[in-house]
Amino acid sequence: MTETSKPCWRAAFDLIGMPDWATVAVPAAASFFHESGCQGESCENQAPVFMAFYLCRLYCPSCAQKNLMVMDEARKQFLLTPFYMIEHLPWTYYNVDPPTSTTEKERYYLKSDLERLQRRVTSTGLKSMTELRRETAVFESRGER
Known about the structure:
Layout: H1 6-16, H2 26-34, E1 50-52, E2 57-59, H3 61-67, E3 68-70, H4 71-77, H5 83-86, E4 91-93, E5 107-110, H6 111-123, H7 129-141
Antiparallel strand pairs: 1-2, 3-5, 4-5
């Protein structure tokens, strides 16, 4: 979205009463509300899809399994990323059909968000989790975990 198109998008959203979605680009939000097919990469499934509202994504069951990851899996796959940072990423409740876990509600995160967070954490150049923990401790002490 360009700077010149922002006022047009905002005006359109105001006209239909769409909420301000601070974490999502306006075109992505419009796509979420006005399209009905899966938004998975190169998926053309137009069948009923799963709405991951807070993530602003529409997925068919197959793409949801490919693109969403539960916290336990994220901890195993993204070892360098502290779980207390992962908890602050946007998430959704998603129950796969049939459920693959025994708990009814778990947090599911976008794999792309987890990958991006891990890249940022590793790019800090800190040599250990202890160093990272020390650097981020100020946020935890303020209750901004």
